[in-house]
Amino acid sequence: MANNNTVLIKIKRQNGPDSKSYWEEFEIPYRPGMNVISALMDIALNPTTRQGKATTPITYESNCLEEVCGSCAMRINGRVRMACSALIDNLEKPVRLEPLSKFPVVRDLTVDRSVLFENLKRVKAWVPIDGSYDLGSGPRLLPEDQEAAYPLSRCISCCCCMEACPQFNESTGFVGAATISQVRLFNTHPTGKALKRERLSALMGDGGIHECGYAQNCVEVCPKDIPLTRSISEVGREVMKQAIGDLFRK
Ligand code: SF4
Ligand code: SF4
Ligand code: FES
Fold this sequence. Notes:
Elements: E1 6-14, E2 21-29, H1 36-45, E3 73-76, E4 79-82, E5 95-98, E6 105-107, E7 110-111, H2 114-122, H3 143-153, H4 160-164, H5 177-188, H6 196-202, H7 217-221, H8 228-249
Parallel strand pairs: 1-5
Antiparallel strand pairs: 1-2, 3-4, 3-5, 6-7
C-alpha cells in the first residue's frame, strides 16, 4: 500500500494490437476485501494517474466475478491468475497488472484468446448430435463415470494453463492442456466417444500431445483444479495406442 488508506497499482497498457506498451501507476482508496477487478472499477471511476495526469480507463474483461466465466485472466505480480479472486490484501504491493503474454493484446489487459476455441474445434470438443430428430434421453452414465467427468467439465476456458506452459508458443503450435483435457472428457462421454478416433488423430500431428514436456505448470495455475496432468497421461496413452494400431493396419 502506498499508505494505510491507499493502494498503488502499476498497469502495463497498450492502446491497440500494434501499439507499443507503456506503464501507468494509479493510487486508489483502500477498502477491506477489495479485489483486482474492484480496483480496476475504482480506476474507471476516476482515470487519473498517480502523477495527476488524466488518462483513459483500463480496458479489461470480467463478468461473473466468481471464477466461472473465465474472462478475467491476467498476469498479477508476474503470475497468471483470475483477477476476480485476487484479493488486494493478499498481494504484494505495489500490485503489477499485465495482460497475458502469449496471446495478442487487443487493448490494455484484454487479449484475444480465440486460439483456444480454434484448438477445441480442431479436436471436435463436442457431443455430435445434430438436433434434427429426437434422439431420446441418451445412454445412462454410471455415477462413478459422472464423478470422473465432472472435474473435467469445470474448465472455464480462461487460458491460464496455456499462459503458464513453457511449450505453448508459436514455434510448437502446441494445443495446450485445456484442449487435451477436453478430449479426455468428450472421449469418455457415451455419445461423445463416437468421435474418439478423430480427436486422437487431431492430437498426433504438429502441435499435438507429443509437444508436452510434462513440466506441470498447467496444473499449478488452473483455477478450477482440473487434473490436467492426469488427462495428458491418459490421452497420451490413447494417442500412442491408436498410432501403433494404425501402423499395423497399413
Ligand atoms: S505438463 Fe507442462 S508442457 Fe505439458 S501442458 Fe502442462 S505446462 Fe505444458
Ligand atoms: S484447464 Fe484450467 S487453466 Fe486451463 S483453461 Fe480450463 S480452467 Fe483455465
Ligand atoms: S470475472 Fe468471471 S472468472 Fe473472473
